[in-house]
Amino acid sequence: MKADIKNICCIGAGYVGGPTMSVIADKCPNININVVDKNSERIDLWNSSNLDSLPIYEPGLDKIIARCRGKNLTFSTKIKENISSADMIFISVNTPTKTKGIGAGQASDLKWVEACAREVAMFATGHTIVVEKSTLPVKTAEVIKNILEASQPNSNECEKKFDVLSNPEFLAEGSAIKDLLEPDRVLIGGESNYAIKALSNIYSNWVPKEKILHTNIWSSELSKLTANAFLAQRISSINSISALCEATGADVREVSRAIGLDSRIGTKFLDSGPGFGGSCFKKDILNLVYLSRFFDLDEVADFWESVVKLNNWHQHRLSKLIIKNLFGTISGKKICILGFSFKANTNDTRESAAIKICKDLLEEGAFLSIHDPKVSKEQIQQDLGLEPLNSDINYSERFDFFNFEEKWVFENSISKAVEKSDAVVVLTEWEEYQKINWEEVSKKMRKPSWIFDTRSILNKKEIINNELLLWRIGDGSNEDRS
Ligand code: NAD
Ligand code: UGA
Q: What sequence ranges are listed for the domain UDP-glucose/GDP-mannose dehydrogenase C-terminal (predicted)?
């Protein structure tokens, strides 16, 4: 049995695998960390000499990569070789919602996790600790264990031995490096004291011991799903209240502040917005719904499902509000979308509210100009399933927007994006949108010009003072202005 961990292999160089392994490499210079992925384009980007080309935008990540890559941190497609030499293997692959078969639309698709387990079973040597980093439904560790235990060594190999741990990741995109450096807790679920100690030793290089929790493996898996469900539930709760505020004249910012000061409720995750996005909240709640139904707990399933339903309703509610305020029709109108990522400080667009809202607006005939500081034109094209126009449009006085119905254009500059638009919709809370000069913007827009602030980040006074009409999420005074 290998006494301590010298070689780690992480399967999956995504939003979790990349940043997590970078931080471990930085904090544990004596451990070699090899991150592998079957996607060679993604690996090439991780190895790019230009740190602006890393496949993931995450503040602080580039500096760590610059320090560790080529020393004790590598990125490659050499899956077999790196599994063979590893004492510890992290499985950090995607676990999206199943699109067909039993559990379609709710259960997680575990085919990538299972594929990893089979590769580990085949290529691992000696004693290997396998760590579930991906978010997995309760009892997945058992599946992994069964696959690993069924593997037989070749006649010339010594016996293979595996321990399986659950070590879910709680980082949030945009603050991943900070979350990894200063986690609220590290959760390790498992049975083998040896394996638990080996993994705890790695984290204790920078995480205080009292923050490293040990649980049984199922509690660990269920805690991850539950944490995401609770966080998402807070957002649906406050978004439901934002609608009530708009209807009654209250202000959701004031309500959030008032309830957040109750220490039992707390101030975080009470910002009303365009609805939660990201690759995990919806997927993990639906997984919980599937599990609950599987165990005949329909009331429990209905409760959690309502969190996702409210989120869907809320996103369409915003599209409808934009249309209503623009005199009930948006065909032949130009709408400028500021922000396409699902939150600020990430280039990730998975499940972004912007996708649904942009699709709704296009369907109603709008012409969209879309700006985001980190999301590429190609990514937006993929998400909307629609090719963009060239951005060299000349908005002359007699410009005919009716020729541009259901079309969109990607703009690198905010100034060009707002030109001749009837409305600006802020969907992501990027810092640069908070610094917009509304006097300049007002001069460039068509009148009447609407600003829809779905993140409540703009300066209300400045907007109103510049002959712009403002709609803000959860602001009960909106109705007085329309
Ligand atoms: P991702 O899609 O960004 O990355 C997954 C990577 O795994 C991809 O690059 C894919 O090519 C690779 N992969 C899949 N199967 C493979 C195989 N058999 N061999 C080699 N490579 C393979 O996903 P992600 O966002 O990093 O999420 C990974 C897991 O972590 C998910 O279960 C997710 O729920 C969980 N999680 C994500 C976050 C987040 O913020 N994104 C946070 C916490 C937990
Ligand atoms: C979330 C969790 O916060 C992480 O702990 C978890 O590890 C991760 O999911 C995961 O399992 O993938 P993430 O989705 O990256 O992280 O980002 P969040 O900050 O949680 O934001 C999720 C969505 O909720 C975003 O669209 C964000 O704009 C929205 N949100 C968040 C609000 O609308 N209001 C808030 O007050 C907070």
A: 336-460
